[in-house]
Write a structure and sequence with these properties.
- With about 130 residues, this protein is an all-alpha fold.
- Helices cover about 75% and strands about 0% of the residues.
- It is elongated.
Length: about 130
């Protein structure tokens, strides 16, 4: 899009390369994040329920899938693979899924890092017993 505004000609091959690199980079980062959270959860100490221990992992896995839908469809479209997907024909819904995926990712990371608890302690907001 920027290239079109600047009058630069972009070849189909360069578009395929950029979509493939976007997919590969996102897949690498998100899979490493999931792996890190799994290792962190497995090594967590204390009496934690399964959800307390592995809940953030499940949330980040869901977010990763939602985030990767868009680049995956780009790559499939670039190579000419016929994809039957509801989101392919509804770009607004595809954008919503991607953006909600990023919000879910933030929630998963906040749960994993106990962000709310840390903010409460930092601001002096303690729960009353």
């Amino acid at each position: 899009m920027v290239a079109a505004l600047l009058g630069i000609v972009v070849s189909k091959t360069s578009v395929m390369l950029s979509h493939s690199l976007q997919f590969a980079l996102l897949l690498c980062v998100l899979s490493n994040l999931v792996h890190h959270l799994i290792v962190k959860a497995a090594g967590a100490k204390g009496e934690l329920s399964h959800w307390q221990r592995y809940g953030p992992v499940y949330i980040v896995v869901l977010a990763s899938v939602m985030i990767l839908v868009h680049p995956t469809l780009f790559v499939f479209k670039d190579v000419g693979c016929p994809v039957r997907c509801l989101l392919r024909d509804h770009p607004i819904l595809l954008s919503v899924v991607t953006h909600v995926g990023y919000l879910v990712l933030v929630v998963g990371i906040a749960l994993s890092t106990d962000l709310v608890g840390k903010m409460r302690r930092q601001l002096g907001w303690h729960q009353s017993s």
